[in-house]
Amino acid sequence: MSAWPASHWRGVLAATTIALAALFVSEHYGGPAVLYALLLGMAFNFLAEDERVAPGMLFASGTVLRVGVALLGARIAAEQLALLTPGLLALLVGASFATVGASLVFNRWVRWPRAEAALAGGAVAICGASAAVALASVLPRREVREQALLAVVVGVTALSTLAMILYPFLTKALGLSPGDAGLVLGGTIHDVAQVVGAGAILGPAATETATMAKMLRVALLVPMLLVFSVWLGAKREPGAQRVHWLRNVPLFLVGFVVLAALNVTGWMPAAVSAGLGQASRVLILVAIAALGIKTSLGKLRELGWAPLVLMALDSVFIATVVIAGVLLLR
């Protein structure tokens, strides 16, 4: 027990140091601090294999990130909320559920087991690795192999990291405003961390809109869990313990919604909103640095081609649908 806190703080300290270095480079030489944090973190990937550091990396890229995203709700104002028109809401919801269906269609060529193909689609559609783990928890164990779940988690994280780097430049090439660019980022990138990171590359306005759109997709985890539980979880083994889908509702989503509601309604003082926003920025930068350290592109070769091809097709599908929808609704 005494060694755990030491390894915990070693990892957090390493991520914090890299985040501060990225912030220094950004402020003195220009460029997005988030991208620097990611790239510098990837340069220190060897730390992820160090047992003295790994627990802290897991904490920084998980718990620290969730707290940072929850605090970001304090920056959501009525102006950003007004961007989510009924048409855009329908687009984001429809694109997310359609991605699962598209994954099953693409799977006719990839030929993965049906439940695993749906799991890959759900991970791309909702919130990446977190959604994959949550959705797998309501499926029968015989329907999802452990190595398949690992392939989905690693693959969707890598694809999301790639999207974080490329999509901001794509939105600039399309001439999208910060608000529309944020909607595209939040509606297409898989993991929450990479959505926030991509938004930060484009600026505060894009970050807030992207996070809000992403939180809507994260909220879809609740109905998606119910669909998976009823549709694919019906053949659960006799005597197996069923995990109630409500237990998988992410708490950081609840915190984000509460803080956003307090700020939008004017119950939160402006000074408090600004302070929480700054704290969120620092925590997210630390989490992105830890995420970079954990990212190993070499591991992709160990997954085989099937999961990567399937999730890449799913990613192209949801990106195409959301971008086309945003352009039509401008």
**What can be said about the biggest beta sheet?**
none
- Counted up, domains total 1
Estimate percent helicity.
over 70%
**Morphology call:** globular
Query: What's the Cα radius of gyration?
Result: 19 Å
Number of helices: 15
What proportion strand? under 5%
The SS-based structural class is mainly alpha
Output mean pLDDT. Answer: 80
Low-confidence stretches: none
The overall strand count is: 0
End-to-end span in angstroms?
55 Å
Helix and strand pattern: HHHHHHHHHHHHHHH
Descriptive key words:
mainly alpha
What is shown here, in short?
The protein has 330 residues and is mainly α. The protein is 75% helix and 0% strand.
SSE blueprint:
Layout (H helix, E strand, L loop, with lengths): L2 H27 L3 H11 L10 H19 L5 H5 L3 H25 L3 H12 L3 H8 L9 H28 L4 H11 L3 H11 L1 H16 L1 H11 L19 H14 L5 H25 L10 H25 L1
Helix pairs in contact: 1-2, 1-3, 1-14, 2-14, 3-13, 3-14, 5-6, 5-15, 6-7, 6-8, 6-15, 7-8, 8-9, 8-10, 8-15, 9-10, 9-11, 9-15, 10-11, 10-14
Write a structural description.
This protein has 330 residues and is mainly alpha-helical. 75% of the residues lie in helices and 0% in strands. It is built from 15 helices and no strands. The protein has helices at residues 3-29, 33-43, 54-72, 78-82, 86-110, 114-125, 129-136, 146-173, 178-188, 192-202, 204-219, 221-231, 251-264, 270-294, 305-329. The longest helix has 28 residues, at 146-173.
